[in-house]
Amino acid sequence: MDDLRKTAYKTMNYQALLDIKNSGQFTEANFYRVSRVAHVFHNLAEYIIADFNGFDEDSFWNAVAGLEQQFGMHHYRKIFDEVVSH
Q1: 3-state helix, strand and coil shares in percent for the chain, rounded to the nearest 5
Q2: Closest by Cα among 43, 44, 42, 35 to 67
Q3: pLDDT higher than threshold 80 for residue 67
């Protein structure tokens, strides 16, 4: 994996943590959405530390697609695409 893609994944992981942090109170209404974001991104930090050894991009993007379909969270793909296009 090239350095630009690695940077894009790191940026996405940072955004996911911000999304969790800024989600407000963990009410019943948003708890499921926040827990799904945490579930999708929880291993990405470990792969970042391991320089992406063993990282399965297809599986990760399938999980992100679930966020897009369930919650309309298309900003992760946009963040990734913006970073890799520069």
Answers
A1: 75, 0, 25
A2: 35
A3: yes
Predicted local confidence at residue 24, as pLDDT: 82
Domain that holds residue 71: 3-84
32-65 confidence digits (pLDDT tens): 899 999 999 999 999 999 999 999 999 999 999 9
- Number of compact structural domains in the chain: 1
Which 3 state secondary structure label does DSSP give 53?
A: coil
And the tokens for 79? 């963040």
